[in-house]
């Protein structure tokens, strides 16, 4: 298989298609971010900035000078990191129990997680909006961290349980037989084996929190807690009928940078995590 | 929390050997303690508000006139279900779901086949395939909205038979097309990774055996590879369909619901957050939730999806 020249050409074409599919829109938004705002207002069709319509780093400087934008990036980083940390801690406990222990209610936890993974988030907006205003969580960091935790837990629990099932737990006893204390056995044997799974779950959780839009726009009202996707969508500039496309594009590129860095650094771990939860039987 | 209190009931049943049962009691307790926080957090933000929505949906309650709150029974549901607006948004949502899942499945499968066989540049391809997955949906929506824009985009110039000044967002179908493109672009890579994992589980020996027996590529695909990936395909369809049914971000960013592109999620959001109609909005929330249940149930029954595999109990 895969030796005929025709097949090789087909695969090469397919690979090129995948790269174009994935990278063209990203290249486009970067190109758009270099169009000058003047050329956008006058209309400048085409993939690349028109002649004389090249803005250099102006849009990036302008986006970064925007107090609301900086605040939103700060909110997003803070909220996503805290939600990720808490979610992974809670999920690790649950996944350990699911992978290692026999107890009543295991089915209930797994079914709840599955149900929540399919839950239409918008149907919670009304009740949560009401509840959060009543208990003072509206427009605060915890007001977003709590829903992010709930909706990332299913993914985190699945991913971690799949990883934990693969760990050869006998090695812990083996280490103890060899004279290690139980703490040493845990620290030197189990932690290094479990760490990659925990790390993968953390990346996927972070992606979810960073990407969320529904909670971001409906449970915040000011820059006190508004995350970056919500902030981008509300940013209309001085003329609401003519959005500052290139400025928005610069903001979008800045907001995407953390994701790109994470993807470049941890590609293998992310792929393993994404597929382990859904397919392993 | 409530799970912990039910522990003693199951204990009395099997006290065969004292030592073993003691250990299993302890294991049972520890298990429940460890999952309790996760269960509480998950239910606090979903089950509890959903019950509240059920209650609120039975009253006429708007934040603009909080003192006029009154119990109206099923009136909100009658109003919603007899309004053509609701059915129009339902049709749009189901349409988007069917179209996007179909194309994601077909394109995602082609991508998975290529990634499965490709030898060179494996790392680069897998890294780039994660980029659309990681990109914020709002950013994807903006990128495609501006790409389709007649004043600042490139699509009109690149696609033949399209006038340079064609306005994609002036009519329902072109606008929905643009929305679907953004949705498909972002989620196909995820689909292809799920299918790739399924593809990797199909035994090479079986494919070789079919080849030795003289099966053509097409026959191998339909008789050997696809039937053996069934579980992976079905789980991918189930998850993506329910995700697509909840479509909101792209519509919000790209059209704001104009030219009849509203989805059920968008209609619900607009009632609650923009018009402060908590009663009606809650009724729509409940209807949205029920629709998701019906679709999930329908897909599971229709395609006989093995949910145990999805939950990793198999």
Automatic annotation (TrEMBL), chain A:
<protein>
    <submittedName>
        <fullName>Carbohydrate ABC transporter permease</fullName>
    </submittedName>
</protein>
<dbReference type="GO" id="GO:0055085">
    <property type="term" value="P:transmembrane transport"/>
</dbReference>
<keyword id="KW-1003">Cell membrane</keyword>
<keyword id="KW-0813">Transport</keyword>
<keyword id="KW-0812">Transmembrane</keyword>
<feature type="transmembrane region" description="Helical">
    <location>
        <begin position="73"/>
        <end position="96"/>
    </location>
</feature>
<keyword id="KW-1133">Transmembrane helix</keyword>
<dbReference type="InterPro" id="IPR035906">
    <property type="entry name" value="MetI-like_sf"/>
</dbReference>
<feature type="transmembrane region" description="Helical">
    <location>
        <begin position="108"/>
        <end position="129"/>
    </location>
</feature>
<feature type="transmembrane region" description="Helical">
    <location>
        <begin position="245"/>
        <end position="266"/>
    </location>
</feature>
<feature type="transmembrane region" description="Helical">
    <location>
        <begin position="12"/>
        <end position="34"/>
    </location>
</feature>
<feature type="domain" description="ABC transmembrane type-1">
    <location>
        <begin position="73"/>
        <end position="266"/>
    </location>
</feature>
<dbReference type="GO" id="GO:0005886">
    <property type="term" value="C:plasma membrane"/>
</dbReference>
<dbReference type="InterPro" id="IPR050901">
    <property type="entry name" value="BP-dep_ABC_trans_perm"/>
</dbReference>
<dbReference type="Pfam" id="PF00528">
    <property type="entry name" value="BPD_transp_1"/>
</dbReference>
<feature type="transmembrane region" description="Helical">
    <location>
        <begin position="189"/>
        <end position="210"/>
    </location>
</feature>
<feature type="transmembrane region" description="Helical">
    <location>
        <begin position="141"/>
        <end position="164"/>
    </location>
</feature>
<keyword id="KW-0472">Membrane</keyword>
<comment type="similarity">
    <text>Belongs to the binding-protein-dependent transport system permease family.</text>
</comment>
<dbReference type="InterPro" id="IPR000515">
    <property type="entry name" value="MetI-like"/>
</dbReference>
